[in-house]
Each structure stands twice: as structure tokens, then as C-alpha cells.
Amino acid sequence: MRFVADLHIHSKYSRACSRDCDLEHLTWWARRKGISLVGTGDFTHPAWYDHLTENLVEAGPGLFRLRDDLDRDIDRTLPPSLAAAPVRFMLSVEISTIYKRGDRTRKVHHLVYMPDLASAARFNARLAKIGNLGSDGRPILGLDSRDLLEITLECGGYLVPAHVWTPWFAVLGSKSGFDAIEDCYVDLASHVFAVETGLSSDPDMNWRVSGLDKYRLVSNSDAHSPPVLGREATVFDTDLDYYSVRAALETGDGFAGSLEFFPEEGKYHVDGHRKCGVRMEPEETLAHNGICPECGKPLTVGVLSRVQELADRPHGARPDGAAGFTSLVPLPEVVSEIVGTGPKSKKVLSEIDKLTAALGPELVILQDVPVDDIAVHSPLLAEAVTRLRRGEVVRDSGYDGEYGVIRLFEAGELERRRSAFALFDYAAPVPSTVERPRPAAAPVDVPAVAPAAPVGTSLLDGLDPEQRAAAEVDGGPLLIIAGPGTGKTRTLTHRIADLVTSRGVPASECLAITFTRRAAEEMAERLAALAPAAVDELTIATFHSLGVRILREHGAVFGLSGSFGVADPDGQLAVALSVVADEKEARALIASGDDRYKKALRVQDLVDFDDLIALPLSLLEESPDLVAAYRARWRWVSVDEYQDVDEQQYRLLRLLVPPDGNLTAIGDPDQAIYRFRGADVGFFLRFREDFPGARTVQLTRNYRSSTAVVTGALEVIAPTSLVPGRELRPMVDHGSAPIGVHHASSEAAEAAFVARTIEQVLGGASFHALDSGRVVGDGTQGLGFSDFAVLYRTDRQSRALVDALTQSGLPFQKRSHDRLADRPGVARIAGEVRDAAGGTVLERVRAVAGEDHTAYELLKPLAAECGTDFERFHTALALGVEVDTWDPRADRISLLTLHASKGLEFPVVFIVGCEDGVLPMRWPGDDDPAAVEEERRLLFVGMTRAQRHLFLSHKAGRPRSPFLSALKAYEQVGDAQPRRKRKGTQLSLL
To answer: Side-chain half-sphere of 542: how many Cα atoms within 13 Å?
Structure first.
């Protein structure tokens, strides 16, 4: 069976698409055009997926048709020549992936096809963990193309790269693509067997690139409204079912070619700048080094130039066995040219109604109906179709998002023939509005980039002079004041590695303490690379895991066994309820550390989180011999983030290290932001009093942020800095972008500014962003969604941001320091794991989780890491291991509090809510100077997370944060004042 398929369309849930993009209208127009197989489009969108399940019924292997009652209603509105023609649907979706690979931002669109609704549902569930599927029918994901293909294959579908030559969003695009399909999909590239050529190229152009010979060249309409169905399409000669279509694409057997636009009509065919009205052929672009002669910015390089760049064959070459193609102009455009009104006008539609009723579907009229039969209705149309079938057309090429124009008649020709052919009444044809190329200006020279200087390779040679000075200090107490971005962890790990590999310090005598499990893991990874033979003997711990270690060895003093458990919050409450019956009273017992509650814990061989510091501390304070034993075991102690220690942790450290001991403390008092947790920066400031012989080294070279960010951050912290003569020197070139300050009229407007600016910095996340003019230019290259962070003082501020990013279709995720054990379902699974079947923690977690897929996915990384160590699994949960819901393959914008951003860095950072009362957070009448100083430090921490771009925003309704008054150099971005609403006419008259 020979049939036409259009397998790339969109629903009404995609941006900039017609409300008529529903199944009924698609079926009606498919019959009008003569298309037998249509893609559903957008099956990842929840509402559209529901619409598909409710209104489609199975119609052969892997295909669907409209419900009988709906189908009958459609046939009643069509003439007999069109009614009852079979129209089938294949589950399809276009997916946009934007990610970073090879120091370039990649933006690639893909078509994914599934054989049934169950497979589509599994696919949707997988993608829902990566991006927001409900914001756009064409979802935007921060996911590598290779990983999208992997998920597609795992769910039983196949993938076709979409419009492969489009400059901005395609696998071979000039702006953000690759030079070969294999480069994009790497090890899974063999599973790609077809590519969509797009409107701006045809097979003849693609045949010039031998690397595409192995792929079937398909075409589709990419319809955003039903009337443009079939403007490009693919022809098959096979059974009408999913598996036959897929087999034809894989093998070529049954693949009968394509119906094409003339490529010049595509809106990215040649090069140019729409804004400047500049259009160029490839040779002209090369002569100008790709630079626009009007504005001096890079031209949008079109498909023709890109094909020429990758071509290894001359024009006119055709591979053996390649399927043919037919170039057409849509019938409405042909009739439009003849009658002199737009292709969507009532006059044109009326004429086509008559033609299709008499001659059949539009594609049949253009290709198969004898010209003499067409001449009966319109001699001019017959002449136009004759020329079309011979390829005799007048071409005005499209460029930079501007569609080209294809005409069948020369300018003025229709007027001259008017008296001879008058069956169609017409007005004078409208002349083309496409401007011809402007005269070329002189080419612009592009400066060469100087090569990078070589870097040392030995252990300490790679450190800068300040870092090396700190790392080389011999024994005794050492305080390292490490400003943000100065290589704190790098310095500390190199120091430890050098001690054990070059200075004869036994690794077993080294203890390194961090504050979070993630920080401990990072330190262990770095030390494994620096000192692989010694890392297993090093002790790397958080304060609380160190407490567990001490209690495992000496817990008998408190009546604990060597395998005691750590009660999670639910376990603590259960123990407290065994002492008192009222839940409120039970929680009070836990908060106060009541003796009755503690005794009940010991009876069950349990401790709680607070015990992990308190019990070891009391143990050591009462046992000088034990203190001496631990000091002998760990003669070299290093503490990260020393400014964040609290009173109990400080006392514990003083017991573990004598006043002249080998203690290295590293941190920055200007980044002390955890007073609400009990941290006291005073312990950092008195270090030299506690350890009189201490040496001090400052790290002042910042390798993270641009000059503007470093300068602005220093200006903000200067009024209350705890580091005398605070110095921070930018050492890397991250561009000259100034700090941007934005004044929004409302919280919603502030969030919209963030979403809009992210798109601008990325250079556009969608065709709509470019075509609407919301984004112009390429943005900053080498960025993915994970390179953006939006920081705020309190979690409540995230609501408006979530709404704005959802509306923009940008993938994001809120990051937090939530305890994994506090997530729904986790406590139940953890409680049942001990008695479940399975040899590993992961096997038991999977068995116990059952249908709770969310909790299982949350626990999966930790369970896999623990192997068969069940005690480690339960201890990690009890110690407050944090939620890690990130799919490692996904790029997403980070939304997080300023406190949660500590230790992270991002190329682009937004800090919203820079208002008095929010940042600094304070209540009327609250004038605690120490609290305000810490809020200033919090802004300093947030600002120094930024590498290239930093935006600070505040909104109307509150005074601007007093901290911003310290900024001397910044750029006001967006509207400095809220826009006033225009007054109504009536009010003006009154």
C-alpha cells in the first residue's frame, strides 16, 4: 500500500500553536490533504496524553484512529471525494534538549515514536524526573541527546533527529549542533536510522554529505496548525502499521521517498540578519567572515552554508539506492498567487473547497490529476501545476527566521495573462517583501586567541604560591583563611596528600573532618586521586560520623552495644511515646533531651542525632586516658569550614588536639552563616588564642568569579568584614559583564525577569523565543541549564519562580538540604529492609518498595553505594543523609536558598528579593546588629557563587536592601521603575 505520512506535528498544548490542533481537526485536514498517517505530536504532555487515550482507538499494530462517533461527525463535513479515507495516528512527540558538551551549548530537537500508550506512559514517567512535561507540548529538557536516545530505546520506541540542519536547534545546526550524527549520539548512534531534513533543505542537498548515506531522509510538516499538514511529508509503500513504517526506515525496503518544500522557501535556507535586512549567499558570508556588515555581529548561518561546509561531494551527486523526492508548493499558496490574496483568505479557501470536491485531495491535485482536468476549473492553475511539476519556479530564499517565497509566475506575468484566464477573479499580485542582499562591507578581522600557559604536574607544583605556602607548613597549629573561590578544598587535600606521600606521616594518623557527607565524599575522591595508596588508611568523617566511630568503640560506658542504632525522627517519637502518651509532650521530651527519654533510648540500644556529639564529648571529658589515646591515634587533624563549628564541636576538637598539636583549620569568617544552627564564628576568631603558636596563611586568589563579581562582593562585605584588610583578587577571565540590578514591579514580574534573562543568556531555548524577538543573538556559549542558579532568602520566595519557569517551559529543580529519611515512604522501606529477602541493600530496598517508585528512586543511589553493608545504610539515613533527587543525566536550573548554596558555584546566578526585611531578614523593631551582620555575610556568600553573570533583583513594596548601597559599579537592567497602567479613555476625558 502506497501512502503519505506526516509524522511531525504539534497539538494545541505546544507554544505558538493553533487551538485547532486537536484530533478532530487533524483528521479533517489529513483527509483534505490526502495524508493517511499522522503523528499525534506532544504525547508527553499530560493533558494531551489524556486526550489521546480518551479519543483514539487501536487500528492495526501500533497505530490508532479517531473514535467512530467523532469520525462520523467529520465525514459529514467533507465532500464524498474526501470522506471516509483512512487516517491513522502514530504516537509521536518532538523533544528539545539543551545541554553542555565539549564546552559548547548544544540545542538539539528530536522526534520520538512509541508503539503503544503503555510504552508512552513509561517514557513520560522517565522524562517527568528530568523536566516539566506540563509546561509545553514540546518539552525542553536539560538532557544529553545520547541519554534521550537511551531512554527511548529502553521504553521500546525509536528516535529521529528533527530538522537536522536548522541553525539553532538541530543535530547538524551551525549554531549549536555537531558535525556528524555519530558525534551527537556517540555509542548509541547505530540505533538512529533516519533523519528529518527540515523545510530549508531537500534530499538533493543532503546527498552532498556522504555521512548521511546510511540514514533514510524523511520529511514532515512540523505543523503548528492543521491547514499546513503535508507541506512536507514522507511516502511509504508498505503495510499501514507502526512496525512496517519502522522497518522501512531501518532497511529502506518500502521507503518511497518524500514530498518537499522547495528548500529556498524554508526560513533558514541562506545566511543573514533579519533585524538588519541583510541576506547573503554562502560565498558572500565567507567573504565577510560570517559577520553582518550592518551591525558587526555574527550572521545566522543558514542551511545552505552549513551543508556546503560539511559536504564532501559536488552538487548533483546522488548515492546509489537513494529514494527520490518531489518538490511541491502547497496548493493554497499556488491559488493565493493567482487570486492575489493571502493563502488563508476566505477567497482562497473557497476556491480550494471547490477544487478538492471535484478533483480530490490537495496532494493528489498537485501530483496526479491530469492537467487537462485541472484546466476545466482554472487554466491558470493548470499552467501553475504544469510549471510546478517541471520544477519551473521563481525562488526568493528565506533567511534568519524569515520564510522565503516561491512563485510560479514572473512579476507582472499574471496581469498580462488576465484577459486570457479569468476563471479565478483576482487582484494584482502582492510583490515580494523579501529584501535583496545589501552591498557587502569590508570583512571584519577576528583576533587570534593566545595559547594557555603550561601548568605544573607534580603534587604541589600545581598550587599557586599562597596555596603552596599553606600546604608546605610543617607541624603545629595552622589557620588558613580561605576566601571564596580560592581553592580551599584543593589546598587542604594537597596538604594531606603531601604529608602522607612526601613527609613520612602515616596515613592512619590523619583525621579530616567536614560538616556534610557530600563534602566528606568530595574530599575522599580528591585524596583517592592524589594519594591512591594511602586513602583507605585516612579517616575522613563528619563530626557526627566521627561520634558514631567513637561510640562504636566505647559505647559500653553508656550501655550501648557495638551495633547500636541511630534513631531517625520517627524512631525518636516512638521512643518518647513509650514514656509519655501525649505526642506534644513527647516532642517536648525530645527537644529538651529529657533523662526519661534518653534512658528509653538506651534500653532499645539507640542514640539520637544529638547524642552523636554529646556522648563522645562527655566520654572524653571524663577520661584523660581516652583523650591521650585518641591524640596518639590521630596526630594530624584537619577541619574544613572551621567558622561553622558550634560549642560542643569546638570542645570535642580541643580534647582531640593539644594546644601545640598538628591542627589545620581552614575557613572564612566572612562566610559564617549558620548561627541559627548554633555555629559561633567566635571560635574561628580566637583560634590563635587557643593555639598560641599557630601560623596563619591567607588565600586571596579567586579562581571562580569575574572581576565585576569579586569587586561587588568585596564592596558588600567591607562594612562588617571579619578579615582585617580583606583581599580577594580575580584570577580568571570570565568576561566583562557587570553586575545587573533589576527593579521589578511585583514578585511575579521579578520571576518573569529571571525566566526571560535565562533565555537571553542561553541565546534562546525555543524557536518561539527567537521568532518573537524575546531573544536576539547567540547568548553566552558553553552553558547548559545546570549552569544557572536562582537564590533566595526563604523557601516561600520560590513559588513565583516555579510558576514563571514552568510557564517558560524551562527545566528546573529545587535543591535543598532535606533529610532523605523525612521523605514519604523512606522510613517504611528502611524499617522493613532488615527482614526482606535479598543479598544486597539495593535488592532488599527494591523488594520492600513495591509500588512506591518515588521512594525507591530516592533510596536507590544510597542503597547501591552501601552494597551489603546494612548497618552503613541505616546509619547514613539516621545521620541525615540529604535528598539527592537529581537524575545525573539531567541539566536543570537550580532553585535554592542562600544557605543551601554554600559550597556551590554556577556561571550565572540570580539573587531575588534583595529588600530590607527579606535580605536582611528582620522584623520591625528587631535591631540585633550581629544578626544583620550575618545577613550581610549571607549575601556575600550568594554573590560569590557566581562565575560569569550575577543579577540582583528587588521589587516594589519594600525598601531596597541597604546592602546594595555599597555597590559602586552595576548596570540597571530591565525597567528601573514599574510600568504604569494606561488610563482608560473615559477617565482621560473626565
So the answer is: 20
